[in-house]
């Protein structure tokens, strides 16, 4: 690429305080590959967009993170070829030594310039997505999300593995912390969902398989039915491990024959959500059976949620620091751990990474909490993290709005890693190392060959770097670009 590059350095987010931007200007103005270097007060605001709206050429931005501000800089660059170098998290926010931060910024910008000049243009194409959504799980989160989507005009399909809809609403009499009747909330969420809003519901059915299509995904269900959808919502909720609070709620609600005294045995590493839920159950029980003795046994070192002790004292609920005695005469409820309820085999089918507690890994927890790693797949409610019922319902509405915006934005599909099938030896390393399930082994009579499922590829580069026979390549960042970055890094030392 013979065209020279225009460099723009952001002064915001402590960049001008922690990095000597004048030194960077002097250095890059002397480069034969650079046309000009400018500092801008904030590259992410409207003034910068106005300043750069008529700029033509190759652009190098020294600013912040691609994950949080990538869309802004893509709009800022327009049709121009560009590269964004993260000086905020990699330099300004991690170094107190200004000369060291400046030297590192110079190195990163040099590498970014080398990549920009050797990288192939990125191509993409529009996805003609169906405005049709599959919701996995018919608990409160799944039902609320399905209802909101249907009211916005989307076709919705619900898949529920059990014979009853409602999830956690089926095990409690009232909703914490609002006190709303669970049956009434379930009726409100499910009312006219099938008859008036034409939501299709499959009960005693599980998600079985997925393949990509030109309009989203082809879905195979355990009942043999196939559906094509443009988006998927995972609303599989949470489960309790090593405890019986949820079982206690279910028995107490359906039978109403509980007899005390009652002990809540708190385990180490208990989730605050379980503690607050247990206290709510204890308070409800106190209203129903004021004569019963209710006690929480809490190990030393456990930090109780704010207001827990005060609320317990107000309702004559005792809190004892220590272990529950082995000779306790009465009913006992153990508070264990909370885990995500998405089975690992289903996560594997969906090609979704799980964290250590079984929750789905979000693309960016604080910035994009409704999205997971693949475009068109969303997570809602307890599958995201334990949360109160009101927050669960609100989160479902947020996800529904996010999905509608996703459809309206007419998303585009990006290029994926490329595999040279002649060079591939079918070792399976790429499939083993990819967290997103993009590479798969295709077996035939002559052996196995890997192929890439473009919809699931994030171009993270793990398979490219690890392939023992160099059969996988990045279509945007070829070997020449990587070598030029390494050379630029060495030259800056």
Question: How does this model look, in words?
Answer:
With 493 residues, this protein is an alpha/beta fold. The chain is 33% helix and 24% strand. It is built from 16 helices and 26 strands. Helix 10 (272-288) links the parallel strand 14 (262-266) and strand 15. The longest helix has 21 residues, at 98-118. The mean pLDDT is 85.
Features:
single chain; 493 residues; alpha/beta; Rossmann fold; FAD/NAD(P)-binding domain; 4 domains; 5-stranded parallel sheet; 4-stranded parallel sheet; 33% helix; globular
Architecture blueprint of SSEs:
Elements: E1 5-10, H1 15-18, H2 21-29, E2 34-40, H3 46-52, E3 58-63, H4 66-77, E4 82-86, H5 88-92, H6 98-118, E5 124-126, E6 132-136, H7 140-151, E7 155-160, H8 182-190, E8 200-203, E9 207-213, E10 216-221, E11 226-229, E12 231-234, E13 238-241, H9 245-255, E14 262-266, H10 272-288, E15 294-298, H11 308-314, E16 318-321, E17 331-335, E18 337-340, H12 344-350, E19 362-364, E20 368-372, E21 377-379, H13 389-408, E22 412-414, E23 418-419, H14 429-433, E24 439-444, E25 447-452, H15 462-466, E26 472-473, H16 479-491
Parallel strand pairs: 1-2, 1-3, 3-4, 6-7, 6-12, 7-8, 12-21, 14-15, 14-17, 15-16
Antiparallel strand pairs: 5-22, 9-10, 10-11, 13-18, 19-20, 23-26, 24-25
Helix pairs in contact: 6-16, 7-13
